[in-house]
Amino acid sequence: MRYISTRGGLAPSAFCDILLMGLAPDGGLVLPEHYPRIDRATLDGWRSLSYADLAFEIIRLFADDIPQEDLRALVSRTYTAEVFGSPEITPVKRLHDGLAILELSNGPTLAFKDMAMQLLGNLFEYVLAKRGETLNILGATSGDTGSAAEYAMRGKAGINVFMLSPDGRMSAFQRAQMYSLQDANIHNIAIRGMFDDCQDIVKAVQNDHAFKARYRIGTVNSINWARVVAQVVYYFKGYFNATGSNDERVSFCVPSGNFGNVCAGHIARQMGLPVERLIVATNENDVLDEFFRTGRYRPRGTAHTYVTSSPSMDISKASNFERFVFDLVGRDPDRVRALWAQVERAEGFDLSDRLEDTATRFGFVSGRSTHADRLATIRQVDAEDAVVVDTHTADGIKVARALRLPGETVVCLETALPAKFADTIREALDRDPPRPAGYEGLESLPQRVTVFDADAEAVKTYIAQALG
Ligand SMILES: *Cc1c(COP(=O)(O)O)cnc(C)c1O
User: Fold this and answer.
1) Is 113 noted as a catalytic residue in this protein?
2) Residue 364 lies in a domain
């Protein structure tokens, strides 16, 4: 399996060579030359596998330059009942109307990002050790990504994490989750400012090429290919859990922001998983919904990105979307390059001539949800099914119920647990969300965080001193 760029400027490369890469050198995203096709006999064989065994079978198709016994050990160490709360790893529960919820949020940070990030931590450590290299991850977070990265990388040999977060702007739970980590390789830096200020500092450091090279600075953002591959696994597992045989078809409904999660669903479908439709759910930040309804992609600036009660979907430029568009335009890198030149000129693009293909050939449909919809859905699911869902999952359930066809099996992806978003749960239900066991005293644990003004030089000095 070799990897290329959506913009055509990457010589075909092996998995381990693209693993630590952010963007491809030409600014595009990395993709395999072709998707492996899964035949019916293979699918039948996979139905009864454990999560870890299924993950091994799928990931080895994409990471074929890692010796099989090493990969099997890595994957088995990652997907355990101790880390993910149950031997099923991603159980399915049914609501009274038959809607299925695929539980992806039982990992250490209570959001689906753990599913991929936990594997990434083990993969990075393995590849760095093999090459005798080290890596210092620098990132900015407004919540879920940063904590998932820290819990995946804590205690890993050869890796440090420097995570910037906006001082005082995350929920008390999210702050406690990140700042209570005492591992020496995890560095929390709170910036007096907003999330954008944090991101600007990351960019400034990345643009100092001498600093970046000297201190081996890397990232773990959502365009990382290994994260997408790890997410492909739970579409297969979710399909097997929600069906009685491989003759059935299901649709998936995915609360979306950067399009990473549903992109993995697209790849699973291209591999031959019997997926009827991929339902993209957005909140008020609805660039993706607009695209799937009209064929027009009009990314917005940060000034037009709304702050909502499903904050992990407050994104107006979907970084993984380019991977799908590459497939939609017949894998033509020249076309993709031209389209993203338009995006960079803030013109967006119009692929309404491909809208038919988007729906029929690729199975995509979409819908949007609002704060009022979220509250109503959280109340409804609590009253009818005695289940408390988080705000992002509520967006998915709202859209799934609006678009579901008679007889269609829809699996909604649960992207976080409600404990992370207590304010909105209290607004909807007038009580606190349930807390999973082990998280009771989280906010009273001692915290480790360094606070700086929004100043890239101060952050660079801190990094240099920390690395000696
Ligand atoms: C990251 C995140 C999303 C959005 O996922 P994408 O892969 O960016 O589309 C949705 N919900 C939650 C809770 C998240 O953390």
Assistant:
1) yes
2) yes
